[in-house]
């Protein structure tokens, strides 16, 4: 597969859910290689606008080319957690967050995301800023490593893996994805059927290094201020931790404030901010057949009241 190719998961479903006003202003929080952005632009009128964000310098280069081709589009090099300042006073008609790692990031061994290909242990979405996975894994306290593997990877054998990492780094610095995958795999006594034994550990480290869950939480909170009335929030997540945050946020904001039973409550007091539009949407059989990575995708949609 071309390392610059990115398959946009749930493309048609997400665009159908997102676009309600073709003259509106929209945000693509994770530009990637522009699959969703290009599809959004195809739906917008000449008055419509799209602002995209991405941490990855390689994604920004692709986005800048699109920026030159379409005056309705602009791209910003930062996390979607920081979009509030870039969007400024504009009221959004829709916000799309396609979470996780893009195909080019996974497929390029030098980015250090994949346990399937040996490469430098990096894992940074913005690979020119902040500590790499290599720096962290070779310096972090063993208890901190165990916490990250347990908290962000839901790894049952987090302590065993953390101790194995500590033992190995005392002998030599851990430098590559292949070395780390071998260490945590050997420390995993019960391999899950159909899943690489390093999967959860790599997921956990990547989430931690890129501050993914905190960024998501902040972006969801900011969406309440940025979206105009009837504006759509569309989120595609790829693992249970992300989806849990999104599901809980949409549920809570669609229920409003909770008051003691029996207390007379007005609609204004409840302060309900969102309406959930659909149940969780998953990729169909045909899409999963075409792109196996889409099998874990879950899309949730809400509308600002």
Task: Write structural notes for this entry.
The chain contains 14 helices and 8 strands. The protein has 305 residues and is α/β, with parallel strands linked by helices. The protein has 2 domains: 11-103 and 212-304, Rossmann fold (3-Layer(aba) Sandwich), CATH 3.40.50.150; 127-209, Putative methyltransferase TM0872, insert domain (DNA polymerase, domain 1, Orthogonal Bundle). Strands 1, 2, 3, 4, 5, 6, 7 and 8 form an 8-stranded mixed sheet that branches. Helix 1 crosses helix 2 and helix 7 crosses helix 10 (199-209). The chain is globular, with a radius of gyration of 21 Å. The relative contact order is 0.14. The model is unreliable at 1-5 (pLDDT under 50).
Summary of the model, kept short:
This protein has 305 residues and is of the alpha/beta class. The protein is built from 14 helices and eight strands.
Quickly name the level 1 CATH class of the largest domain.
Alpha Beta
What do we call the CATH homologous superfamily of the largest domain? Vaccinia Virus protein VP39
* Mean pLDDT value: 92
- The parts where pLDDT drops under 50 for at least 5 residues are 1-5
Annotation, overall tally of beta strands: 8
Strand coverage percent: 5-15%
Write the layout of secondary structure elements.
Elements (H helix, E strand, L loop, with lengths): L10 H8 L6 E4 L6 H9 L5 E6 L2 H13 L3 E5 L5 H5 L4 E7 L4 H5 L25 H5 L4 H12 L4 H14 L5 H10 L12 H11 L2 H15 E11 L2 H16 L11 H4 L3 E3 L4 E2 L2 H6 L7 E7 L1
Parallel strand pairs: 1-2, 1-4, 2-3, 4-5
Antiparallel strand pairs: 5-8, 6-8, 7-8
